[in-house]
């Protein structure tokens, strides 16, 4: 059983992929009439069995609950937010740790920095262009023409070696997923920290949040 957070365009891509693999899944979205429900005729359920196809109406707290209940093999973070960071903010009382960003930023080449501030950093080897649909993430970016010296995961590990980095594993061109076990491992790790940095990366892009716990 896998979990898809977000029932929009990319959530539909995830459903198509999982149906091809004959894997069960649950989709969680705040809109009970989202694109995934309409396109795939998903029915809304309050309780979820270990197998099948399900839609659950809810937001990120509901997604967090489903991670605990389902122990999903993969989580497809198709909503346009930093899923693991926002889930951490639900589990723990957090505020931005701006000073951490100030130490990470100088270690990154300016050409990859897309957005920075308020404890958040967004980076990309395709900073100034739109990504092509269902990209295979080749060594030379087809949009920016930048030849990647390494993966963004490796670059972020260099820039912030103390960060907990979750990898968005390439499941199909243009679609990544997080391992459910690594999300749970991150929660256990963050529970013991007063300050921490968490990032999600693939070969091309990355988003990083620095937090400190509120007293």
Describe this structure in words.
The protein is an alpha/beta fold and 215 residues long. 30% of the residues lie in helices and 28% in strands. It is built from seven helices and twelve strands. The strands form two sheets. The protein has a six-stranded mixed beta sheet with strand order 3-2-1-4-10-9, sandwiched between helices. Strands 5, 6, 7, 8, 11 and 12 form a six-stranded mixed beta sheet that branches. It is globular. The mean pLDDT is 94.
Question: What does the secondary structure layout of this molecule look like, with pairings?
Answer:
Blueprint lengths: L1 E4 L3 H12 L4 E5 L5 H6 L12 E5 L2 H11 L3 E4 L5 H9 L2 E3 L1 H7 L8 E5 L2 E5 L27 H8 L4 E4 L1 E4 L2 E5 H12 L3 E7 L3 E9 L2
Parallel strand pairs: 1-2, 1-4, 2-3, 8-11
Antiparallel strand pairs: 4-10, 5-12, 6-7, 7-12, 9-10, 11-12
Helix pairs in contact: 3-4
